[in-house]
Amino acid sequence: MDKINVAVLGATGMVGQRFIQLLENHPFFELNELAASERSAGKKYSHAARWYLEGNIPDRIKDMEVKLIDPEKLKADIVFSALPSGVAREIEPRFAEAGFMVCSNAGAYRMGEDIPLLIPEVNPEHIDMIEVQQDSRGWDGAIITNPNCSTVMITLPFKPIYDSFGISRVFISTMQALSGAGYNGVPSMAIVDNLIPFIKGEEDKVETEVLKILGKFNGSSIEFADIKLSAHCNRVGVIDGHTETVSLETQEKVDIEEIKKALRDFTGEPQRLRLPTAPEKPIIVREEQDRPQPRLDRDALGGMAVTVGRVRKDPILDVKFVALGHNTIRGAAGASVLNAELLVNKKKV
Ligand code: NAP
């Protein structure tokens, strides 16, 4: 198949760099446009970006010129957006209106009534909201979003539990990595020897996004899942990898071994379709009493698997466990690339 031309908006940032890494030698996509703010536009990528990932900037990318974020100046069919939310709010609709498929990481449109908020293993059928969106907005392109980085890590394990046993109430406490706040996000003096029990807007995102993703698409809108959910979000001094402790109440009383089996056996549409970025298994269940841990488990299956451990009985609700995943891969750029692969497979682009 001919490769599809793609661009990355916000290419110099933490998530933008992950996009560059994941799109290198991609079988469906050819990355041929990089864009960022006026600060970076006109410079070679290697001069504009402070590369923070392991390994070097790919040779093909380092001399590429960073452009301004302008739909008239970029040539691509899909744009991956790693823009701050406020910037995304203004810019993404201009791209969609101009006919681009926008795969966005930003929070700006995730909860929009006609905007798919996708985890391809969980709600691939929500992709059909694209037609609703294009009809209602008169766009040739569309905006497709992936969830907040904390939402992905828990919604993946919720899916098999929700489908098999129902979920009625949930408590979540997150321990979120520094890269989740971007390179200049949290000063070292604020986080070394410390943790910060507040991440602006994060608890609200987790508490609402899960319900939309687990909701039912009725052909015109989403009927949200009926789950009561409470989240505490904390920033900790880990570079990559969000860890989340979860306690939940199931609708049907269930044995812990049945929960583990449902998690272990779970696969979704990306696995069936063998999409290039899909991990062989989206959920890994570990039995050691001290796993998962960020340094040991965040890179599992290329950073695209969520690792679940310490699955045990909860004395107040029914079951509790720990979930961990790579926030800039499964929680951001990898999630968006997987969404785009689904778009291609479903012939939406
Ligand atoms: P970041 O490191 O701060 O990078 C921001 C990028 O946006 C840079 O390329 C920057 O370009 C560009 N930018 C900033 N202001 C701009 C403007 N006014 N006009 C055009 N471009 C502008 O942020 P990040 O962590 O990569 O996050 C990007 C987005 O992904 C955010 O919406 C974030 O909430 C979301 N997200 C992040 C994660 C994560 O784990 N980090 C996970 C899920 C979702 P310059 O370098 O030229 O300034």
Description:
With 349 residues, this protein is of the alpha/beta class. It is built from 13 helices and 14 strands. It folds into 2 domains: 4-148 and 333-345, Rossmann fold, CATH 3.40.50.720; 150-326, Dihydrodipicolinate Reductase, domain 2 (2-Layer Sandwich). 32% of the residues lie in helices and 22% in strands. The strands form 3 sheets. Strands 3-2-1-4-5-6 form a 6-stranded parallel sheet, sandwiched between helices. A 6-stranded mixed sheet has the order 10-7-11-14-13-12. Helix 1 packs across helix 13 (329-345). The mean pLDDT is 97. The chain binds NADP nicotinamide-adenine-dinucleotide phosphate (NAP). NADP nicotinamide-adenine-dinucleotide phosphate binds at residues 10-16, 36-37, 39-40, 69, 82-85, 87, 105-107, 148-149, 179-180, 182-183, 327-328, 331-332.
CATH uppermost class of the largest domain? Alpha Beta
**Count of beta strands:** 14
Order of helices and strands: EHEHHEEHEHEHEHHEEEEHHEHHEEH
The chain-level mean pLDDT equals 97
Let me know the CATH homologous superfamily of the largest domain: Dihydrodipicolinate Reductase, domain 2
CATH architecture name of the largest domain: 2-Layer Sandwich
What is the element layout, followed by pairings?
Layout: E1 4-9, H1 14-23, E2 29-36, H2 45-48, H3 59-62, E3 66-68, E4 78-81, H4 85-97, E5 101-104, H5 129-137, E6 142-145, H6 149-165, E7 167-176, H7 188-191, H8 202-213, E8 216-217, E9 222-223, E10 228-235, E11 242-250, H9 256-265, H10 269-272, E12 283-285, H11 294-297, H12 300-303, E13 306-313, E14 319-325, H13 329-345
Parallel strand pairs: 1-2, 1-4, 2-3, 4-5, 5-6, 7-10, 12-13
Antiparallel strand pairs: 7-11, 8-9, 11-14, 13-14
Bound molecules: NADP nicotinamide-adenine-dinucleotide phosphate.
